UniProtKB/TrEMBL annotation:
<keyword id="KW-1003">Cell membrane</keyword>
<feature type="transmembrane region" description="Helical">
    <location>
        <begin position="354"/>
        <end position="380"/>
    </location>
</feature>
<dbReference type="GO" id="GO:0042953">
    <property type="term" value="P:lipoprotein transport"/>
</dbReference>
<keyword id="KW-0812">Transmembrane</keyword>
<dbReference type="GO" id="GO:0098797">
    <property type="term" value="C:plasma membrane protein complex"/>
</dbReference>
<dbReference type="InterPro" id="IPR051447">
    <property type="entry name" value="Lipoprotein-release_system"/>
</dbReference>
<feature type="domain" description="MacB-like periplasmic core">
    <location>
        <begin position="64"/>
        <end position="278"/>
    </location>
</feature>
<dbReference type="Pfam" id="PF02687">
    <property type="entry name" value="FtsX"/>
</dbReference>
<dbReference type="InterPro" id="IPR003838">
    <property type="entry name" value="ABC3_permease_C"/>
</dbReference>
<keyword id="KW-0472">Membrane</keyword>
<feature type="transmembrane region" description="Helical">
    <location>
        <begin position="59"/>
        <end position="85"/>
    </location>
</feature>
<dbReference type="GO" id="GO:0044874">
    <property type="term" value="P:lipoprotein localization to outer membrane"/>
</dbReference>
<dbReference type="InterPro" id="IPR025857">
    <property type="entry name" value="MacB_PCD"/>
</dbReference>
<keyword id="KW-0813">Transport</keyword>
<dbReference type="InterPro" id="IPR011925">
    <property type="entry name" value="LolCE_TM"/>
</dbReference>
<keyword id="KW-1133">Transmembrane helix</keyword>
<protein>
    <submittedName>
        <fullName>Lipoprotein-releasing system permease protein</fullName>
    </submittedName>
</protein>
Length: 452
């Protein structure tokens, strides 16, 4: 900086400070006001002024822009990925709980008598919306020399609709076609494909409970007619679950009037652990109570761990962008040493200098956070359309209907995740300003102006 430029800069800075003195008193009083307000007006003015580059330091402005874009892209990616993970978790949970139950009451020996009274007593709980008995057993189904293992569930079609969504999953036939004594059966889509069976075909259900004969112990066999096919969208159920009428199941498995248990549907699935605890203390009898969080704990825990790991990896992008703020401010401090010296000679305190550069770094962090949250929300709510557009452009299909049961990318943006990401991003940006700002406050005016 030549002598004339330096003189003009000092004059402009002095005029700006004198105008502030007219409104806020002396610079010392201004600094004292900063005790009550984190940043005083003149500190905010100079800090924001430093965010705009001069002709000779465009590189610093470029690094600032890169830091801002890094925070923006990192937050956009993180919010979008967390929303998609929430969507997949919600979709899988809905498909599983459309077949399974929120709460299940079982007999200790898989036999429960007087289930009507138990269902009535459990239904008195304010969170219970429906109850249905069931018979649960293992078996094998055979058709045209093809044999598959299966879980056999005996149900009452009228009450089953109160706790499950099988009526909405039927792709052929109706659940009401299960009539006691007719020995009808409803099977999953994948099991039907494996067996090569269609509606109206007769398949054999083999019970593991043996029948003693002079020739030895033989398994119990019964021919059933396929009266319906369902598709739950979950391979475990579509390939290994069959439904028969509860009366037919009681006959086949020699359960007389007993059932395996009672299934409950709740108004809020996330209240299941609390409801289980309440039922354990209110119900009396030889049975145990479980809920969906226990039955599928490993599956949902794996999804949660995957979500956390992806979030941690993507959060590193924001951390890298925050470190870019450090390099930006360090270069800015080096470039502005003469300015800092002039401010110090005019009465600015080290704390005031530190706040000026904190304002500069915080501005980058706040701007990046606002843009990142905006971009993340927009992309999260429209990720399906974006993916469809990419598939159309490149003629590819990311989630084929022939391979994946979930053929569209689900999304579920949650306010908690968005707020958490924004707060973490802001805190990282704020922390990144501490060292460069502290270094600026330690600049010695005499040393900075020695060679000017």
């Amino acid at each position: 900086m030549c002598r004339s430029e330096k003189t003009n800069y000092v004059d402009r800075t002095s005029q700006a400070i004198y105008s502030f003195r007219a409104n806020y008193g002396t610079l010392a009083n201004l600094t004292n006001q900063g005790i009550y307000f984190f940043v005083s007006p003149y500190e905010l003015f100079i800090g924001l002024r430093y965010t705009r580059a001069k002709k000779r330091n465009h590189f610093i402005s470029f690094i600032s822009l890169i830091s801002l874009l890094g925070i923006t892209l990192g937050m956009t990616a993180l919010i979008t990925v967390m929303s998609v993970m929430n969507g997949f978790q919600k979709e899988v949970r809905a498909r599983i709980l459309g077949v399974a139950s929120h709460v299940q009451i079982n007999g200790f020996d898989n036999r429960l008598s007087n289930w009507q009274a138990l269902a009535e007593e459990a239904s008195r709980h304010p969170s219970v919306e429906g109850a249905a008995p069931f018979v649960n057993a293992q078996g094998m189904v055979s058709y045209d020399q093809v044999v598959h293992g299966a879980i056999v569930r005996g149900i009452l079609p009228d009450t089953e609709n109160h706790v499950a969504d099988f009526s909405d999953m039927m792709v052929s036939g109706e659940l009401e076609n299960l009539i006691p004594g007719d020995f009808g059966i409803v099977i999953g889509m994948e099991l039907a494909r494996s067996l090569g069976a269609f509606r109206g075909d007769k398949i054999v259900l083999i019970s593991p409970q043996g029948q003693v004969t002079p020739a030895g112990i033989l398994p119990r066999l019964k021919q059933f007619t396929v009266v319906g096919i369902f598709e739950a969208g979950h391979f475990e159920y579509d390939s290994g679950l069959v439904l028969i009428h509860m009366a037919d199941a009681q006959k086949l498995y020699r359960m007389d009037d007993h059932v395996s248990g009672v299934r409950l549907k709740l108004s809020d699935m996330f209240l299941a652990p609390k409801v289980v605890n309440d039922l354990i203390h209110s119900l009396t009898g030889p049975y145990y109570v479980t809920d969906w969080t226990q039955q599928h704990a490993n599956y949902f825990r794996a999804i949660q761990i995957e979500k956390r790991m992806l979030s941690l990896i993507l959060a590193l992008i924001i951390a890298v962008a925050a470190f870019n703020i450090v390099s930006t401010l360090v270069m800015a401090v080096t470039d502005k040493q003469s300015d800092i010296a002039i401010l110090r000679t005019l009465g600015a305190s080290p704390r005031s200098i530190m706040k000026i550069f904190i304002v500069q770094g915080t501005f980058i962090g706040v701007a990046g956070t606002i843009l990142g949250v905006t971009g993340g929300i927009l992309l999260a709510y429209n990720v399906g359309e974006v993916v469809a557009f990419i598939e159309w452009i490149f003629s590819v299909e990311f989630l084929s209907n022939e391979i994946y049961y979930i053929s569209k990318i689900p999304t579920d943006p949650q306010t908690t995740d968005i707020v958490t990401v924004a707060v973490v991003s802001f805190i990282l940006s704020l922390l990144a300003t501490i060292y460069p700002s502290y270094r600026a406050s330690r600049v010695n005016p005499a040393e900075a102006l020695r060679y000017e």
